[in-house]
Amino acid sequence: MALHALIFDFDGLILDTEVSEFTTVREAFADHGLELTLQAWQRRVGRADHAHWLDELEELYGRPLPDRDGVRQKRMQRHHAMIELEVIRPGVVELLAEAASLGVPAAVASSSSRGWVEGHLDRLGVLDRFLAVVTRDDVERAKPWPDLFLEACRRVGANPERSVAFEDSHNGSLAAKRAGLYCVVVPNDITRDHDFSHADLIMTTLADVSIADLLARR
Length: 218
What we know:
The chain is α/β, with parallel strands linked by helices. It folds into 2 domains: 5-17 and 88-217, Rossmann fold (3-Layer(aba) Sandwich), CATH 3.40.50; 18-83. It is built from 9 helices and 6 strands, in the order E-H-H-H-H-H-E-H-E-H-E-H-E-E-H. Strands 3-2-1-4-5-6 form a 6-stranded parallel β-sheet, with helices on both faces. Helix 6 (114-124) links the parallel strand 2 (106-109) and strand 3 (132-134). Helix 1 (18-31) packs antiparallel against helix 4 (68-83). The longest helix is centred in the middle third of the chain and has 16 residues, at 68-83. It is elongated. The relative contact order is 0.20. The model has no long low-confidence stretch (mean pLDDT 93).
């Protein structure tokens, strides 16, 4: 069976932005005497239709934050500084190179914003490896709904049922399966305990994934 496309998530899969995001938001909660558990945070990962963490902090705090913008800026600066130290996750470049050699298009389907995703892909030197980058700015519903994956497949002219999605979260992998794609999950430190019972394949790293192996499994 011909492989039509590879569709990648971004946050936590191509670049580990998840650990720094959770760590810095948890620090903001702690600064106000509150605890943010990993279990509570995990429900947000991979989707965009949730309340802003500052709204949740204020709700638990019981009153408006005296310096809401300052809290946001402090958290963002530390988050971005931590991400700048991160490099592209193992196996991504090699998998993209294999796809290119076989003429299989690659795309990104992310619940984050276009500026965030394309900015980091450009910094990592892989933006031009993707035929399409689809983000929450392009669809009405982000993950766990299938819209992002369906739009990514449409843009590269691929049949979802003959395409492979790479994900790291429950919500993302659920979206991929709802869109009809074969889904490979590579959990990270934040999503390791997610429910991936609906996924087709779970791997510890993309470095262990090859297109030849995927074709043999399908």
